[in-house]
Amino acid sequence: MTSGRTTWRFANATDDEGSVEVEVANLVIAGWTGRDPQAMEAHIAELEKLGVPRPKSTPIFYRGSSSLLTQANEIQIVGNSSSGEVEPVVISNDGGLWLGVGSDHTDRKVETIGVTISKQLCAKPIANRVWRFDTVESHWDQLIVRSWVTREGQRQLYQEGSLKSMRHPKDLIRLFGGEGFALPPGTVMFCGTIAVRGEIAPADLFEMEIEDPILKRRITHSYRPTELPIAG
């Protein structure tokens, strides 16, 4: 389960203890993680409109190269058929589990051919701050994720919802590895997303955040996709 390793540094936003280092070796992208069958069906339906086939199982776990992760504010994409989606991100190191926020940026055109392939084609932006997972574990359902897109200078809310509609990370980890399984240090798991408002579409700027209304704090990140031409 191990690929190339890269050491990532995150700011510990829980208690100002400095930085958190993670030697990332594995990237797992959990899909169709909805706890609410109706909400999950809405996300499946919006992807079906784009020609993406229904998953063989729910949830489903895709593997990606850990080299796709980036904390940059700009990513390069090929063509104009990709888009982002906000996701809570669980990160494991020797100190335990941490929670951040990221975007499972995906090529939607290639997704109609093969979801696993599409996941591998785009960088996966993540914020450079994290919280200790045990400080949010008990009130996971109250956490909120949001994203905004800017197109032709117009900014609009793209996604918003509490995580009560999504499976708890401990449940995802169990389903991924089995009873008693612990996420190995060096593993980053994207935990799924929520339905968009309107249609899935590319954007000039993608902004995302996870909010903890109980402890009054947020983690945010934004990035711009730069389109590369398709030469042939």
CATH-assigned fold name: Fumarylacetoacetate hydrolase, domain 2
The overall pLDDT, averaged over residues, is 92
The assigned CATH architecture is Alpha-Beta Complex
Give the helix proportion (percent range).
10-25%
Oligomer: single chain
Strand order of the largest sheet: 2-1-12-9-8-15-3-4
Percent in strands = 35-45%
Largest sheet: 8 strands, mixed
CATH top level class name = Alpha Beta
Structural class: mainly beta
Q: Could you state the CATH homologous superfamily? A: Fumarylacetoacetase-like, C-terminal domain
Number of strands: 17
Q: How many structural domains in the coordinates?
A: 1
Based on CA atoms alone, the radius of gyration comes out at: 17 Å
**Low-confidence spans: pLDDT under 50, at least 5 residues?**
none
Give the CA-based shape.
Answer: globular
InterPro entries: DUF2848, Fumarylacetoacetase_C_sf
Protein name: DUF2848 domain-containing protein
Pfam families: DUF2848
Written description of the protein model:
- This protein is mainly β.
- It has a single domain, classed as Fumarylacetoacetate hydrolase, domain 2.
- It is 14% helix and 42% strand.
- It has an eight-stranded mixed β-sheet with strand order 2-1-12-9-8-15-3-4, with helices on both faces. It has a five-stranded mixed β-sheet with strand order 6-17-16-13-14, with no helix packed on it. Strands 5-11 form a two-stranded parallel sheet.
- The relative contact order is 0.24.
